[in-house]
Known about the structure:
- With about 240 residues, the chain is α+β, with helices and mostly antiparallel strands.
- Among the domains are: about 50-135, Alpha-Beta Plaits (2-Layer Sandwich); about 140-215, Alpha-Beta Plaits.
- The chain is built from seven helices and ten strands.
- A six-stranded antiparallel beta sheet has the order 8-9-5-7-6-10. A four-stranded antiparallel beta sheet has the order 2-3-1-4.
- Strand 8 and strand 9 form a beta hairpin.
- It is elongated and about 65 Å long.
- The model is unreliable at about 15-20, about 20-45 and about 220-245 (pLDDT under 50).
- InterPro entries: DUF4780 (IPR031961).
- This is DUF4780 domain-containing protein.
- It comes from Triatoma infestans.
Amino acid sequence: SPKPRLSPKRVRPEVSTPSTDSVEASAQWCIGAKITEKEPSSSFRDAVKTHRMAIALTTYPNDHLTEEQAEKVQLDLVSRITGESRPQFRDCYLSRGVLMLTCENDLTRLWLERMVPQLKLWEGARLRTGLSSDILRTAKVSVWITGTLRNASPSVVLDMLNTQNEGLQTGDWRLVNKKIEQQGQTLVFDISDQTLERLKRSKFEAFLGLDTVKFRTVTKRTDGAHEEHGPLDWLESTSGRGASA
Length: 245
């Protein structure tokens, strides 16, 4: 009898499974081959960096720009914009007697620094511009005065501080508050950041008359649109440096 035909044994195809090492190697190769964006050069970053600038009277902080004067400055600046210069600004507004502007890039900042000294808008007008952090007052300090100068006017106190303390230039200090008591008086001044650093070096102490006085920081100012007031409700507001005690 014929023998039954045996079907050939089916051979299972061999499937090559990559090893763990080869998978990791491929993944690393893909990561390494990924195209990364090129970082902008430092000169390019500087060119597109915005700058917070300020325009003020050269006698600031003793004299402030009025709204009318600030409008004249803005109109004159706009009239000087040409296609060649192409300055670009983010915003412009009046704050605490200073015209604040945000320059879109370094070229705009340079343009503004060239234009402002050329502005002749009213008789005797002298303007300056620079970074807002350099022009705006940055801090308030208070000082308690007793002894022989307890009844002295703020202007006399400032002149005496300037005379007796080398490097402590009080010409641009602005009196913002005061309180008179039986034993003496407390004066609060608006000062520049440079003056604040000078006071720090002397540990906030200064010679005044026949005594020494101690200053303390009342508030830290920013270059924004609003002035921050510390806990000075007990102080009497005054309008300027020369107010009498």
